Amino acid sequence: MKDSSKSIMQSQKLILKRKGLSDTKLLLLITVSLFVILYILSAILFADRNFAKYSVFFNLFNNKAYLLMLALGLTIVMISGSIDISVGGVTGLVSMVIATMLVDSTVSAVWSIPVALAIGIVFGIVQGYLIAYMDIQPFIVTLSGMFFARGMISVINPRSVPITDEMFMCWSSARVYIPFLYNVRRHGTHDVAYLTPAAIVAIIVMIVIIIMCKKTKFGRSLYAIGGNPQSALLMGVNVKRTKFLAHVLCGLLAGIGGLLYTLFAPSGNPGNGYGYEIDAISSSVIGGVMLSGGVGLPIGTFFGVLINALIERVVPLLGIVDASWPRIITSAFLFAFIVLQSVFARGTGRRLTRSRIT
Questions:
Q1: How far is CA 96 from CA 197, 219, 237, in A?
Q2: Total structural domains in the chain?
Q3: Is 143 helix (H, G, I), strand (E, B) or coil?
Q4: pLDDT, tens digit, for every residue of 250-276?
Q5: What is the CATH number of the domain that holds 147?
Q6: Helix (H) / strand (E) containing 184
Q7: What is the DSSP string of 305-356?
Q8: Could you read off the pLDDT of 14-45 as tens digits, one per residue?
Q9: Residues spanned by the domain of 99
């Protein structure tokens, strides 16, 4: 009996592993190919505007470092089969708290870092507990979290609060130049590519998340419970704890994202972070993360963010001045990838049925 049970668990684990590998690699390939095609077409169409310059490419990421943090948080919870739509509200709350805090010149900008992390972690702990241990639907819990964050922004300050703190503005305007990546301007000077501190932090965090998903027990547990919670439980995975930690990590990344957004746009505003949860979800899904859970890679999310940034950059160059069009186009890509995921899910279901029969 024990041998039979062990054999069943091993076969389930193998099925989940094969599913993740095949679907993940193919979705990642589609995402990377889409970004390369879009970027090459943009470079050709807007060659007269020097779109192919190194600095333009790096600015795609510099301007969206905060979105990568939010999207990575969504990637973690979506791989586990959950969702978090409060990340945009948390971003706005963090930016308003930092801006209001730095109005008092006696408070050091250094305190903005632990404050941002603490806000994100508190949201992650509360929402994660309600979802994982109270079995409340994640959409309802995180929707409530989003409204709470939005309400708190207006309570703290209903008006825009510019940041003038010298240290914080120094962080915001800092540049790390890459001397071997440059283009020569017409008058002979060099246009050198650079990374902002926010982009550097985002890259470091992304590398840590990639290693965590691939090399740690927690990362493997995320894929297991996202693929099949019952099978994961039979394999000895603590499903509730894993879901709880996934939401705590998402909250932490949302806190970091709020700090990076404030570095990008140094002010507190009631509208900050509005709709960013949709941008984060779309970047993750376009990056190959399946809404049904169990499939996705952080590196795919990175390319999803780049596609989002590329669309936002290209649309104005086409002469479309309405700010809503980049989000409309991104939504169209999101719809296409959701349909694609549905095709993958049906194919996976047929493969699993054949595996059980044989």
A1: 20, 33, 39
A2: 1
A3: helix
A4: 999 999 999 999 999 999 888 898 889
A5: 1.10.3470
A6: strand 176-184
A7: HHHHHHHHHHHHHTT---TTHHHHHHHHHHHHHHHHHHHHHHHHHHHHHHHH
A8: 444 444 445 678 888 888 998 999 899 988 88
A9: 2-357
